[in-house]
Specification:
Blueprint: H1 2-23, E1 53-57, E2 62-65, H2 68-78, E3 83-89, E4 96-98, E5 103-106, E6 118-121, H3 124-134, E7 138-140, H4 142-146, H5 154-173, H6 184-192
Antiparallel strand pairs: 1-2, 1-3, 3-4, 5-6, 5-7
Amino acid sequence: MKRKWMALFVSLSFVGLILAACGTEEEYQPAELTDVDRCEVCNMAVPHDHNATQIVLKDGKALKFDDIGCLNKWIAENGTDDIGARFVRDYHSEEWINLEEATFVYDKNFKTPMAYGIYSFVNEEDAQQFIQEQGKGELMTSEDLENHHWERNMEMMKKMKEMMMKKKQEQASQGDDTEQGNGDETDQQENQE
């Protein structure tokens, strides 16, 4: 009789431990973007668009990035031990989605803030449709990103830099030097090259 009670006690204790472990798993949520957010890697302004990404650390701190390539660079330099969750934004709706659940499309000529050329999608169907519409792009999963050769399209970076310089010159000739950053983004891109 004692054996039955002991077996029942051990079984219930085991089930209780499993339920307690499941209940302590923290649910991480992406932080809202603000007008002053800067990328943790390149210090560029984080755009309020589909390119923004973020990591929420286990302590709740949100690290924001202007490009998924910068997020990857941060992970390569810092590891994953302190990461609670990683988030990307859907290309169409700009809603935050867990990076592990997203589907990605890569082409070196897709324009992203730091020219890594990767867009995120909430599902594979949307990504496939985008590839079809664009006539280019490689479908990727989060696992594919781990083995991706993270290289910036430096030709595109040069063109974006030239466009920003031209815009800055036009604003200066108009006497309007009030653009946010006053050229900081151009300087930051030069430092990244």
